[in-house]
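seq:
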Amino acid sequence: MLSRTADHLFWMSRYTERAENTARMLDVNYQTSLLPQSAAVAQVGWEGLLSISELLGAYNYQHGDVRASDVLDFMVKDESNPSSIMSCLSAARENARAVRGTLTTEVWETHNQTWLEVRRMIRAGDFERDPAQFFEWVKFRSHLSRGVTLGTMLMDEALYFMRLGTFLERADNTARLVDVKFHALETDFHGTANARDQEYDFYHWSAILRSVSGFEIYRKVYRDVIKPERVADLLILRADMPRSLHASVNEVVHNLGKVSDDPASETLRRAGKLRAELQYGRIDEVLAMGLHAYLTQFLDRVNDLGSHISREFLQPA
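struct:
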């Protein structure tokens, strides 16, 4: 496969997944902002979201003070922000259009229809009327895209590069999403809880679990009250949780193996090493290190892995 074609397929899937995960991050922040809390606590939540997304500087340049409505507009509608939902869906469509001949008609039409529909919804003010419903729609379109891809694409290199982009992006975004919640605490989380905030905390942990479609899974796995250390364990180390870091890196390694013909590939070695650490890691070790520090290091390694994938597979020799 031409490296240029692989690049478009890889980034088409990354941008689709990024739009979904941006919707998930905004949704959890929007839902928790509706809970009883001081203006200062709400401000920290929105600032943390921008910071973890590495958008605080760009936002401050355009808007100055952090306000919920401005953050939502900036991360949903602002096409000058390359990580906004509109920008991501536009980029996904453009990458799909560039490799139209490689995609099935169903996959192309799904991406094209998503872009046309989101433009109509933004113009009609659907987002402002019901942000939560808009975020659900973005997630649904991403789910639809993945389902159509798996249901209609030939299982060859094109599909593997698309899956590679999806799961590398998911690993990055799940780490950021977990960090948004845990980093909002004043200090690194080490498995302690303040009893007087337990009821308040329940809704926050429920919100983050729901944001990764993990609330029912948590109940099934742990059959217990929601505890922060178990939330961290589920979203980081559980290989059977679809959006966990471990599950995402498993898929990255699997699809890398499909497209790489070099068993000594440095990219495959780095991905395998990261998977092994997740496979044999324990949550008490992660918490002893400090969750924010752990996730920051994980994000650095995922970014490094993305650079190696680009150099080895996506850039012309």
